[in-house]
Amino acid sequence: MNLEQIRGLAFKHLGKRKSHLYREPGFIYYHGQRVGEIALQLRKRILPHQPEFDDVILVASWFHDLGKGIEPHWEYGALLAREILAAYCEADDLERIVEIIGSHTLRKQGESYPDYVKLVQDADILDHFGTVEIWMNFLHNAYSKGTMLDSVRFYQEEYSHHAQTVRELLNYSESIEVFDEKDRFVREFAERLKIEAEGGLMV
Ligand SMILES: [Fe+2]
Ligand SMILES: [Fe+2]
């Protein structure tokens, strides 16, 4: 696979697309790029001697939300990816890429997935936490004309339950470790946000 060529293809399809009312145009391109980086770092930590599917993991990550906007987006995305990538990948690689895209949301549903699927499933979750989570929250409020206090309220009332639910979907203990570090940062940030949004001072 010619990765740079395929990255260009991903940008062509996703780089400017507005896939979600409350997210910036191109979100699914940049999200896909980050998911690819995260998935490979997880692979190196969890399966250090199994690099054979790295390119498959990367390309599937780049395109995993290709179907966003038409639900179920993982199924629609798998169909689209098969067409778009057919001329760029070997048949075996393409099958695995389509498998990853088609099951990236089907976490912990009784089926056992190969590692190359589980790594992307976890990376997808991890990219929604930490500073990216804060970015998405602020952007959501910007697009929906919310105030700073709406973010404060979200972190006080909804964030914990959401984080807890999603944490349980992670496949590997290494992913949970990364998640927990991101989660600690967001909670600390949220505490300060609450204080400063009401005019409080830290010292
Ligand atoms: Fe998705
Ligand atoms: Fe995603």
Question: Can you walk me through this structure?
Answer:
- With 203 residues, this protein is mostly helical.
- The chain has two domains: 104 residues; 67 residues, no CATH class.
- The protein is 67% helix and 0% strand.
- One fe (ii) ion binds next to loops.
Q: Which ligands, by name, code or SMILES, are bound? A: fe (ii) ion
Q: What structural category arises from helix and sheet content?
A: mainly alpha
Largest sheet: none
Reading the helices and strands in chain order gives HHHHHHHHHH
Tally of separate helices: 10
Distance between the termini: 55 Å
Radius of gyration using CA atoms only: 18 Å
- In one word, what is the shape? globular
**Uncertain regions spanning at least 5 consecutive residues:** none
Q: What fraction strand?
A: under 5%
Number of strands: 0
Average of the residue pLDDT scores: 96
Domains (count): 2
* Approximate helicity band: 55-70%
Compact description:
This protein is an all-alpha fold and 203 residues long.
Keywords, please?
single chain, mainly alpha, 10 helices, globular, binds fe (ii) ion
Strands, helices and their partners?
Layout lengths: L2 H12 L12 H20 L7 H10 L9 H13 L5 H13 L11 H12 L4 H13 L4 H10 L1 H9 L5 H25 L6
Bound molecules: fe (ii) ion (2 copies).
